[in-house]
Design a protein that fits this description.
1 helix, alpha+beta, Prepilin-type N-terminal cleavage/methylation domain-containing protein, rod-shaped, 4-stranded antiparallel beta sheet, single chain, transmembrane, N_methyl_site
Length: 151
């Protein structure tokens, strides 16, 4: 197109070319920003999951310290701690043993009370699709060693 003397402005072709170039440049930027938003969201859920697991472990340690012979630990199954973040707490009997001979007995051939068993407390927090998990655990027994190494 030919410009008429004294007229200012852009032709339709120039405007269409500019819009196309801007569009080509903006599409990757939008994709990058949306990807970063998802990464930040995932990192936020991971942070919440770790904090939820640590908080439950602190609760377990507090209860064991408060009442070592019979800690009152709330076992949970899929407790929602935040949107899309679920916590499970388990108590597993690992073994039982005599205070005089640690590790020599077991719950099948040498039955003992809960006072001399080894427990494993497991806190698992899961989130996301596909599921991601954070698992923390600790072992506990209320048996106190008597005397020195030989009891």
């Amino acid at each position: 197109m030919k410009r008429i003397a004294g007229e200012k402005g852009y032709t339709l072709v120039e405007v269409m070319t500019a819009v196309a170039l801007i569009g080509i440049a903006v599409i990757p930027l939008v994709s990058l920003i949306s990807g970063q938003v998802q990464v930040n969201k995932d990192a936020g859920k991971r942070f919440i999951a770790v904090q939820a697991a640590k908080a439950k472990m602190e609760e377990i340690f507090y209860e064991i310290d408060r009442n070592p012979r019979n800690p009152n630990i709330n076992l949970e199954n899929n407790l929602m701690v935040a949107e899309g973040v679920y916590r499970t707490t388990e108590k597993i009997v690992m073994d039982s043993f005599s205070a005089g001979s640690p590790g020599r007995g077991n719950m099948w051939n040498n039955p003992h009370s809960d006072d001399d068993r080894l427990f494993k407390y497991v806190v698992t927090v899961r989130w996301g699709n596909p599921p991601e998990t954070v698992t923390l655990f600790t072992y506990y027994t209320s048996v106190k060693e008597k005397g020195g190494c030989n009891g």
